[in-house]
Amino acid sequence: MTQKRLAIQFFGHTRTYEKTYESFFKNIVESNVKDGWQIDIFIHTWDMSSSSDRSWHNGQDLFDIHLLSQDDIENIRKTYNPKKILVEHLQEGAHGGGESKKRGNRLRESYEKENSVKYDYILYTRMDILFASPLNIQRYIDLYTKGSMKNFPLPQKHCFAAFNPFVRMPVIDIRYINEGDIVYFTNYPHDEFKPEKRLELFIIMIDYKLHRDFFLQRRDFIHGYNSSLEAKLKIEQDKSSELQLQLDTKTKENMQMLSKFKSLENTLDSIPIKKQSLEISNLEQDLINKKLKAQILEKELKYGYDAIQENKELKEKIKILQLASTENINQQVIGTAKSRIHNQLSYKLGQAMIANSKSIWGYIRMPYVLSYIKDIHKKEQIAYNEQIKANPSLKLPPLESYPDYKEALKEKECLTYKLGEAMIEASKNWYKGGYVKLWFKCKNIQKECKKR
Questions:
Q1: So what's the architecture of 4-236 in CATH?
Q2: Buried/exposed code over 394-403 (b: 16+ C-beta within 10 A; e: otherwise)
Q3: Are 42 and 173 in contact (CB under 8 A)?
Q4: Would you list the domain boundaries of the chain?
Q5: Are 6 and 120 spatial neighbours (Cβ–Cβ below 8 Å)?
Q6: Complete DSSP assignment for 91-125
Q7: pTM for this structure?
Q8: What is the pLDDT of residues 111-142, one digit of tens each?
């Protein structure tokens, strides 16, 4: 079987590639490699990281504009590992995107000639695109070969273009495709900047949208991210209302379990337990004193019958109290392995994230709720450690000793626990953009849990 070949051509300025390359490899490269595509990357760019001329962002401080150093170029080479890369100087007044695309075509064509290869499709895109959803090329091709469009064969020269209807124009006209020049793939490479300008090219608009499936990454923000998030959340809520009800029920159960656990903790600190422990300590000390007396009597009288008999009675009392105390504490403290896992920070945070993900107001207050839960959990841990230090017998047994241990391990694979883990990881790596990546990671976790 012949290997399917895909060339990916980056054109234009490098801009914010350091913030977008991970999403590119995850949603473009890895997704299509899994579908059997052999992928080669080609880069043509300019020696300035960005330009404020001939663009909608002219005059706006959206990029760090600087001359690319040799270290910058080497970093780009190591990041993308392109088959060919060319960095040139952009002449004043020239259209950077259109000219860069033309020169990128020449770069790829020279590689094809040198290595006797031919690419089935070429995907054109820019380095400042943050991809939020996979773009599977084979999915769209299969629609025309064995899917719902199989009665309409693909024209000889065709192009699949990302499309965002009614964003810039109040009409849908094949002669003007919103965002079609940002992300598109074609079996007919051409130099024209906008694919719809090639009249011989059959344009197929695909459901891959700006501000939903991909975004424009700027220096300090993701353009269109906030507005699209609200719409996307509403769609997801409409689709998963039944799941939300189930999660609400589970959350109530978890809160009840947490309440029971706190009640058990309070019971441990109750007066009867403390009184019982004090009685045991006093009896043990009394036993030591009686032993000393018995030894003295034995030396003086050989056998002190009354003292020895009294020692036996004390031992029996201590044994009875110890058994009663141990049974009482075990019944009140041990609980179940599942309840122990529900009391872990990851599970608590996941509960709060789910509970507050039902409305925009919930998202606004979520950071404060999560921070409060973390503080309370930390105080509970400190209080527990102090109790253990004062009385080691109160230490909870290992999870492996619980009868429901194997069943409890499944709780660590549930949506609630996984979301909490992702939040903890994001807070640890906030300075590396952890919170920006968190939303995408949460969506992947939700998809995986639905599959399971």
A1: Alpha-Beta Complex (3.90)
A2: beeeeeeebe
A3: no
A4: 4-236, 240-451
A5: yes
A6: PTT--HHHHHHHHHHHHHHHHHHHHT---SEEEEE
A7: 0.51
A8: 999 999 999 999 999 999 999 999 999 999 99
